[in-house]
Amino acid sequence: MAGITISKLSQAFPRARNIVRSMPNTPGQIGHGITGYLFSEPPQNSDQVLIEKILSSLGPAFELKEEEDLDRVTAISGSGPAYIFEFTCALEEAARAIGLPNKLAQQLAIGTVTGAARLMENSELHPKELRNQVTSPNGTTQAALESLSADELRKIVRHAVEAARARSIELSHE
């Protein structure tokens, strides 16, 4: 609900005793999403339990303290799956560019991303530590990571997140 503020929801549903604004993401379709949500008023315990039950059916759900946090959540987890999908497309395209057949390029890209995601999910290690385990000094992974660093991947991602957050804020003023 990017840009649909609690104020707008309250106007649309004037008889509601409490409004809940949430930002789920598309992996919720398979129970692996993540959702941020916010009540317009402090909820009754029964309302809290009900909302947590409903939203947790999509995956983990986190209550937020202020509405501005929903713009932040939108930029990270609301839009985030598209970032991963785009990275996977780039990986697939690169696989084709170095000579792998189309079907194998797609299978390798998707399998690599989903496998890495599952490893992160099931590991107690921070992603940085997992990355370091894959990276041999002066090896192929180090060469690739140095290229990503030179191309400022983290800066690119930060700018993408900032653009998504800014757009979420803009939508709330339209």
What is the CATH superfamily classification of the largest domain? Answer: ProC C-terminal domain-like
With strands numbered from the N-terminus, the spatial order across the biggest sheet is 1-2-3
Low-confidence stretches: none
What is the ordering of alpha helices and beta strands?
Answer: HEEHEHHHHHH
**CATH class category of the largest domain:** Mainly Alpha
Structural class: mainly alpha
Mean pLDDT: 95
- Report the sheet-strand fraction: 5-15%
As for the CATH topology of the largest domain, it is ProC C-terminal domain-like fold
The largest sheet, given as strand count, sense and whether it forms a barrel, is: 3 strands, mixed
Structural domains: how many: 2
- Shape summary: elongated
* SS elements, strand count: 3
Radius of gyration: 20 Å
Figure out the total of helices.
Answer: 8
What would the keywords be for this entry?
elongated; Rossmann fold; ProC C-terminal domain-like fold; 174 residues; 3-stranded mixed beta sheet; mainly alpha
Please characterize this protein's 3D structure:
This protein is mainly alpha-helical. The protein has two domains: 6-68, Rossmann fold; 80-169, ProC C-terminal domain-like (ProC C-terminal domain-like fold), CATH 1.10.3730. 62% of the residues lie in helices and 7% in strands. It has a three-stranded mixed beta sheet with strand order 1-2-3. The protein is elongated and about 60 Å long. The mean pLDDT is 95.
